[in-house]
Design a protein that fits this description.
Layout (H helix, E strand, L loop, with lengths): L18 E7 L8 E5 L11 E6 L2 E12 L12 E4 L4 H13 L4 H8 L16 H5 L6 H8 L2 E5 L7 H8 L3 E5 L3 H13 L4 E3 L4 H6 L3 E4 L11 E7 L16 H12 L3 E5 L4 H7 L4 E2 L10 E5 L1 H5 L4 H4 L4 H7 L6 E4 L9 E3 L16 E2 L4 E3 L6 E3 L10 E3 L4 H12 L4 E3 L13 E4 L3 H4 L5 E4 L3 H4 L6 H15 L7 E5 L6 H4 L6 H15 L6 E6 L15 E5 L4 E6 L2 H13 L3 E4 L5
Parallel strand pairs: 6-11, 6-12, 7-9, 7-10, 8-9, 10-11, 13-23, 14-21, 14-22, 20-21, 22-23
Antiparallel strand pairs: 1-2, 1-4, 3-4, 3-5, 15-19, 16-17, 17-18, 24-26, 24-27, 25-26
Helix pairs in contact: 1-2, 4-5
């Protein structure tokens, strides 16, 4: 609020200021709302509009949150300077306010994701949808249709099956909002639908077209906030993919936003995945999860090999991370091979020097880390034990870690043909100059196709010290399966130092129902999300006093001088407490993806 004007008057005019706007400025570090007057010479901007206001002596952009009657106010308000652009519709603004509070983060960041990249002065009224007429020629998934009648749910769809029959079930109902984990995936969907004569808005570039009304609005994570008038349903593809969660505060997940938005609008929401998360299945309930009948070709051939055990003690040190199965594929010049090694791999993986067993927690099977004082600690459940191997009792534990560059040298020597490295920093597409590639998991997003995908050290994924390690490992296997589409005798090789371990062995025979049951039971026993609520809290120089006095049902554990882990059983008290911490200038990351 300012004092530039007399209350109820516009400078140089006799017209009264009888209406004000409550806005949130687009300024980093400021997450408060302010009231501004609307002059009579200006039409009342709708909720969600982007306006220009004066704040602390400078002009800034702001979003309109609500209209406020200021006719009886006894304080002075500065006037709105100008209306800059159309913004998110009212229902999206309300949804953004819900998400910002639920995730204890700045509302400004959420509204920025929901707003157009360019200034838009006005949008035309929407035209009738023609999805039903155009899409009636295609086959439809009967399971998806059944879920839509029940208000939505989870469709378990193996990675080698087409997604179109599931999408078709929603298209026949009217306008659809489609959320994908990546822009490339969204472009493929948009291109296919446009070739059939449907009007499609590809977000974020087609924000105005989406607001004016098209048959399908499709895009990556932020598309869940896109305008879609007269929406008939929401589809989230690859719900398991971590890219659907924003890692910045507020750490909203597109799945949760889609579920809440669909519920508010009274339309069904479908979550589609080869192996959905425990959170998705818990939301849907057993009666709204569709398990497909197994078919040949649902998954490619998956093999688990142990490069140390199979080669023997004398050969193993020379072979490094290359098993005999992988070497045979590398030496076949007709085969395109993609080798994945996550050097960031969440990476402190300890193995026994004598028996090569991974140092795992006896309670939850997570990989343990060296505390430096003769003890091993489990980052997942805080269990401790002496610095010894659980399998053979040996005290010599070594850090099993090898970078992409070293692996590339070994692979090139074994393959005797050119090898190309592909990482997150690589900005060119693969499959252009070589048939053998090595890189981090970014390779699975950049290589167009392959005959073999080999994970050089799969233990880094399965035994990573995070409670979501299994879900992340499965997401990599799913990506690898899709890279093998169209390959003759496609093959996934998972190299592990402990191939007989049950956690690793289950990857050879994907059974989504059994895998989810095991994972859900583990989360339930350890009181991990989605059976509880968790947040990573980062503080500044001073620790907020509130951390020392959590409410009943909320526990606080100190990780280091600046980081705390907050866990709660009840949603309302947890959300209230995390918002109190945020008001004390702490950064809150709810349900962190890799913790």
């Amino acid at each position: 609020m300012g004092t530039a004007q007399q209350a109820g008057r516009l400078e140089g005019s006799s017209q009264a200021l009888i209406t004000s706007l409550r806005v949130v400025p687009d300024v980093s570090g400021i997450d408060k709302t302010f009231d501004y007057a609307v002059p009579d010479t200006m039409a009342l901007p709708p909720v969600g509009s982007i306006v220009r206001v004066e704040l602390h002596g400078r002009r800034v952009d702001a979003w309109v949150l609500e209209h406020v009657d200021a006719s009886g106010a006894n304080y002075d308000l500065k006037p709105v300077i100008n209306v800059l652009s159309v913004g998110p519709p009212t229902e999206v603004v309300d949804l953004a306010r819900w998400a910002a509070r639920r995730c204890a983060g700045p509302l400004r960041a959420v509204l920025a994701s929901a707003s157009p990249d360019k200034r838009i002065k006005h949008v035309r009224s929407s035209s009738p949808s023609k999805t039903g007429a155009v899409s009636s020629q295609r086959s439809v998934s009967p399971q998806a249709e059944q879920l839509l009648e029940r208000g939505g749910g989870v469709v378990v769809l193996p990675p080698m099956r087409p997604v179109r029959p599931v999408l078709e079930a929603v298209l026949r109902r009217g306008r659809v909002l489609v959320v994908c984990p990546a822009v490339g995936f969204a472009r493929i969907v948009a291109g296919a639908l446009r070739r059939e004569g449907l009007s499609v808005a590809l977000m974020p570039d087609d924000w105005q077209r989406a607001a004016e009304g098209v048959d399908v609005v499709v895009g990556a994570r932020s598309a869940v906030w896109a305008p879609c008038p007269d929406m008939a349903g929401i589809v989230v593809f690859d719900e398991h993919d971590e890219r659907l969660q924003d890692e910045r505060s507020p750490t909203w997940h597109a799945r949760d936003i889609a579920i809440e938005r669909a519920a508010r609008l009274g339309v069904p929401c479908l979550l589609v995945s080869p192996l959905p998360t425990v959170a998705a299945v818990r939301w849907a309930g057993p009666e709204r999860v569709v398990w497909p009948e197994p078919q040949d070709g649902d998954w490619p051939r998956i093999e688990i090999v142990d490069p140390f055990t199979e080669l023997g003690d004398e050969e193993a040190p020379k072979a490094g991370l290359l098993s005999s199965a992988l070497i045979a594929e590398l030496r076949d010049p007709t085969r395109t091979v993609a080798c994945v090694l996550n050097v960031k791999g969440r990476a402190r993986l300890l193995t026994c020097k004598g028996c090569h067993a991974v140092a795992r927690c006896e309670k939850c099977d997570a990989a343990m880390r060296d505390m430096g004082d003769g003890r091993l600690e489990c980052p997942a459940c805080a269990n401790h034990r002496p610095h010894v191997c659980q399998k053979c009792g040996g005290a010599a534990l070594v850090l099993a870690r090898k970078g992409v560059q070293r692996a590339m040298e070994e692979i090139q020597a074994a393959a005797n043909r050119p090898v190309r490295d592909v990482t997150g920093a690589t900005d060119t597409a693969a499959n252009t100059s070589a048939n053998v590639y090595v890189g981090t998991e970014a390779l699975l997003h950049r290589v167009a196709s392959a005959d073999v995908v080999a994970f050089l050290d799969f233990d880094n994924e399965v035994f990573a010290p995070t409670y979501r390690a299994a879900e992340h490992a499965w997401s990599l296997v799913i990506l690898a399966a899709r890279v093998l589409r169209g390959a003759t005798n496609g093959r996934i090789i998972l190299q592990s130092n402990d191939a007989t371990n049950s956690l690793v062995a289950e990857f050879a025979h994907p059974e989504p129902m059994r895998i989810l049951e095991v994972e859900a039971e583990k989360r339930r026993q350890l009181s991990l999300p989605p059976f509880s609520h968790m947040a990573r809290v980062v503080v500044g120089d001073g620790q907020p006093n509130e951390l020392s006095h959590p409410p009943l049902g909320v526990a606080v554990a100190q990780v280091n001088d600046r980081e705390f882990l907050v866990r709660g059983d009840e949603a309302d008290s947890f959300v209230e407490f995390t918002n109190v911490l945020r008001s004390a200038h702490a950064r809150v990351y709810t349900d962190p993806s890799r913790y």
